[in-house]
Amino acid sequence: MLKYYNYDVVFQEVPDEVSLAINLTNCPNHCPDCHSPHLWENIGEELTENELSRLVDIYQGDITCVCIMGGDASKYEVEQLAHYIKNILNLKVAWYSGRYDKPVNINDFDYIKLGPYLTDKGGLKSPDTNQRFYKVVDGELVDQTHRFQRH
């Protein structure tokens, strides 16, 4: 069961999109120096299709994307929600995962961030980052990490 702690409308997580970012809990990765260690706990409200629809309705017309932050403990459920967001709610879907493995149903996503946070490598803004941000184009991952980095 997916649970979420909070949500917000954000502008930086997905280039060219206004995203409803939903922070999922029960993160199994426990990255050192994690910016949100409270999300390691199994807390929050259940994120069902009905609850997701309710959240999207609040911002209907203002958002272009739903960005799922986490969910690595329930990858299959994240994929089911992505399918619902894209095909029923008709919004773009992004997933920020702390793992390296891509989803099985990649075409249910428009954007995917893969990789754990490693302190010595930094986040997406760092030129040394191990994390990668991809746009899904015709079933292929096209690296867009450079869009987070200043040149």
Short description:
Helix content is 15%, strand content 26%. The protein has 151 residues and is an alpha/beta fold. The longest helix has 13 residues, at 75-87.
| Anisotropy-based shape | globular
Radius of gyration equals 14 Å
Largest sheet: 8 strands, mixed
Class by SSE composition: alpha/beta
Order of helices and strands: EEEHEHEEEE
Distance between the termini: 41 Å
What's the β-strand tally? 8
State the helix count. 2
Strand order of the largest sheet: 3-1-2-4-5-6-7-8
Taken as a percent bin, the fraction of beta residues is: 25-35%
Percent helix, as a range, is 10-25%
**Mean pLDDT across all amino acids:** 94
Oligomer: single chain
- Residue ranges: pLDDT <50 for 5 or more in a row? none
- How many domains in all? 1
